[in-house]
Amino acid sequence: MTTTVTAAPPVAAPPEPTRRRRRRTLAPGKRLPASRLVGPLVLLALWAAASAAGRLDPGAIPAPWTVLDTGVHLWTDGTLPTDIVTSLERAGYGFAIGLTAGVTLALASGLTRSGEALIDGTVQLNRAIPTLGLIPLFILWLGIGETFKIAIIAIVVYIPIYLNTHAALSGIDHRFVELAEVQGLSKFRFIREIVIPGALPGFFVGLRLGVTGSWLGLVVLEQINATSGLGYMMFQAQNYGQSDVILVGLLIYGVFGLISDSAVRLIERRVLSWRRTLSS
Question: Is the pTM of this model over 0.90?
Answer without folding.
Answer: no
